[in-house]
């Protein structure tokens, strides 16, 4: 499936901005790409993803990480852990909408371990 590169760029920028906000004292942002075959675990998270080779885009940071109760609603519009008036609160929801047409998006994080967002 073809992805609009402008919309993909918008998704990466939203993820980078969230990473910046999660690392107020600085840290490392890593953007990684690879050609991968979707495995059973990923297909369980994104059942509409076809079983074939995909381009995987991962964005990771060294921020404080997210507990499970934050990960579950993280792609919902207007969900935030930020202070009032500190953003639009639609960044990750926009990311999810942009990549849903391309395949899927998943989040891995633990408290104390910065998150990794995977787009395929």
Describe this entry's structure for a reader.
With 120 residues, this protein is an alpha+beta fold. It has a single domain, classed as Histidine kinase-like ATPase, C-terminal domain (Heat Shock Protein 90, 2-Layer Sandwich), CATH 3.30.565.10. It is 32% helix and 26% strand. A 4-stranded antiparallel sheet has the order 1-2-4-3. Strand 3 (105-110) and strand 4 (113-119) form a beta hairpin. Helix 1 runs antiparallel to helix 4 (91-100). The longest helix has 18 residues, at 5-22. The chain is globular. The termini are close together. The mean pLDDT is 75.
Low-pLDDT regions: none
Strand order of the largest sheet: 1-2-4-3
Q: In the CATH hierarchy, what is the class?
A: Alpha Beta
Mean pLDDT equals: 75
CATH homolog superfamily? Histidine kinase-like ATPase, C-terminal domain
Helix vs. strand class: alpha+beta
Annotation, overall tally of beta strands? 4
Domain count: the total is 1
Helix content: 25-40%
Gap between N and C termini? 11 Å
| Number of discrete helical segments | 4
* CATH level-3 fold name: Heat Shock Protein 90
- Name the shape in a single word: globular
Global Rg: 14 Å
Q: Write the H/E string, N to C.
A: HEHEHHEE
Main sheet attributes: strand count, strand direction, barrel closure = 4 strands, antiparallel
Query: How big a fraction of the residues is strand?
Result: 25-35%
CATH architecture: 2-Layer Sandwich
């Amino acid at each position: 499936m073809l992805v609009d590169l402008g919309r993909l760029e918008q998704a990466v920028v939203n993820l980078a901005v969230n990473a910046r906000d999660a690392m107020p004292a600085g840290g490392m942002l890593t953007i990684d790409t690879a050609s991968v075959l979707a495995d059973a675990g990923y297909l369980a998270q994104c059942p509409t993803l076809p079983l074939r080779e995909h381009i995987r885009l991962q964005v990771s940071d060294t921020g404080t990480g997210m507990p499970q109760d934050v990960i579950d609603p993280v792609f919902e519009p207007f969900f935030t852990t930020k202070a009032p008036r500190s953003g639009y609160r639609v960044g990750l929801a926009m990311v999810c909408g942009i990549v849903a047409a391309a395949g899927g998006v998943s989040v891995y994080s633990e408290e104390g371990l910065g998150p990794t967002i995977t787009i395929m």
